[in-house]
Amino acid sequence: MPQVMIAHGARRSREWVRRLQEGQGDQGQSAALRAAVREQGGAWNAQRAAEALQGAGYEVDQKGARAVLRKLAAEGAITKTHPTAALYKPAGT
Q1: What pLDDT, on the 0 to 100 scale, is given for residue 17?
Q2: Count of domains in the chain?
Q3: What is the sign of the dihedral through the CA atoms of 59, 62, 63 and 67?
């Protein structure tokens, strides 16, 4: 029951709460997206990031994907290419 209340309050799914409690939250998403960026390369936006994360088994929308993209940019794994839009490329390319 607490998972349902937490998920509802955070407007997230029960699966999101379960992964967060198991320590797979944002770190797992970051690792999955980092791997996808390394494998596929090219330009990344919120739509492409969300699709990659969903393909890796995460329930994430574009808003959540933008947050993961910002985290990867802060870590230096990707570089922002547009000043106002969420467009990124792998670092060093």
Answers
A1: 59
A2: 1
A3: positive
Distances (CA, A) of 70 to 18, 87, 89: 23, 10, 12
Distance from C-alpha of 19 to C-alpha of 14, rounded to nearest angstrom: 9
- Residue 84 sits in which domain range? 2-90
Task: Give percent of the chain with pLDDT exceeding 70.
Answer: 72
pLDDT tens profile 5-44: 444 555 556 665 565 555 455 678 999 999 999 999 999 9
Backbone φ and ψ of 92, nearest 5°: 85, 10
Domain CATH number, residue 41: 1.10.10.10
Alpha-carbon gap, residue 35 to 11, rounded angstroms: 27
Place of tokens 């699966």: 15
